[in-house]
Amino acid sequence: MTIWVDADACPKVVKEILCRAANRTQTPLVFVANQRIPVPPSPYIRSVVVSSGFDVADAEIVNRCEAGDLVITSDIPLASEVIAKQGHVISSRGEVLTQANIGERLNIRDFMDTMRASGEHTRGPAPLNQRDRQQFANALDSYLAKR
């Protein structure tokens, strides 16, 4: 089992939590981004740099992840593709995305895209707060404990 991270938009604090967990559980952790992501020296942690472009990192994660792998992303279309491959997904806010809830999340995402395309001004997500960080750490620990 490998943990794949959509690292371009992953908050620094989430990356730190992931690195500590990977070392503690000796789980392979791979950050995928279109730029170099500094990682601590560890036999379990590495970074993969992909070329720039729309969804290039997402495509790399989908191509490399296997059934049972965990992907950390807040990108709903990427999450949907990972779930279709029997992978597991946790958002950077600790939301566990599954076959049962991904359809609803895709619908909400598409609706918001339509709103923005029609000129509606929508706000982005709120900054990550302490509760979000704790929820992420709890979801990750729960997942790793089951493995």
UniProtKB/TrEMBL annotation:
Similarity-based family? Belongs to the UPF0178 family.
What positions belong to coiled-coil segments? none
What protein does this entry describe? UPF0178 protein B0I24_101308
Domain of life according to the entry: Bacteria
Provenance organism: Aliidiomarina maris
PANTHER family xrefs:
UPF0178 PROTEIN YAII
List the InterPro entries hit by this protein, alphabetically: UPF0178
